[in-house]
Each structure stands twice: as structure tokens, then as C-alpha cells.
Design goal:
Number of helices: 6
Structural class: mainly alpha
Helix content: over 70%
Radius of gyration: 16 Å
């Protein structure tokens, strides 16, 4: 039963990761890493497919290999994250407590992104 749940979760995170490639503010790499985490524990075949996928595998391999992000990706991630947080807080969320939670989550996300080692172009 646990194996089936992990496969389902991995597949959901792959879907969200694919959406994240096209939607600014949705971190594709994070969701694909989560998918890999669940696939490793449930299906080596699915994990191999994910890691060796010609598009999706690059996100995972780059992060696993270097444990770092380029300055460009950090700027894009933080900028798009705060754009969508601002839009949500100003236009869509009316509850002040929920706004606080969203802003706190954004702050935590920013700190996490900034704490990741920066990958220099000469190291790629």
C-alpha cells in the first residue's frame, strides 16, 4: 500500500513540476526532486525514467550534481515568487491572518533560496 501511495505522490509532484516549468513562481526543480524522492522509495523504474528524461532529468541532475543554483535562477525564482505573493495578498486574499501566513511562507522561501550555494557559470 505504501508503494502505491508513493508512486501516486511522485506522479502528482511530476505533474506539478511540469506545470512549474511554464508557470513563473512555481518551483519546478523542488517538485521534481520530491517526485524523485518518492520514486526512489517505490519504483526504481519510474525514478530512472524521471532522471533520464531529456527535459525533466536536467533539473534533477543539475541540482543533485552541484547542490547549487545560478544567480539567474535565484533572481527569477525570488522575483516571480514575490510577484505572485504580492498579487495574492493585494487582490485575492482578504483575511489578514492568511496574508500573514502567505508572507511568512514567502520570507521562508526567500531565505531558503538565498541559502543555497550559488553556482558560477565556470563550474557548470
Amino acid at each position: 500500500m505504501k508503494k502505491i501511495i508513493y508512486i501516486i505522490l511522485g506522479s502528482i509532484f511530476v505533474a506539478i513540476g511540469v506545470i512549474g516549468i511554464f508557470v513563473p513562481g512555481l518551483p519546478a526543480t523542488s517538485f521534481l526532486l520530491l517526485a524523485s524522492y518518492f520514486y526512489v522509495r517505490s519504483s526504481p523504474r519510474l525514478n530512472n525514467w524521471l532522471i533520464n528524461h531529456k527535459v525533466l532529468g536536467k533539473f534533477i541532475k543539475d541540482f543533485q550534481k552541484h547542490r547549487a543554483m545560478t544567480v539567474k535562477h535565484k533572481v527569477i525564482s525570488i522575483t516571480s515568487m514575490w510577484f505572485f505573493i504580492s498579487m495574492s495578498v493585494v487582490f485575492f486574499i482578504e483575511n489578514i491572518y492568511i496574508n500573514g501566513i502567505v508572507l511568512l511562507a514567502g520570507l521562508i522561501g526567500t531565505v531558503v533560496i538565498l541559502s543555497i550555494k550559488t553556482l558560477r557559470p565556470e563550474n557548470i
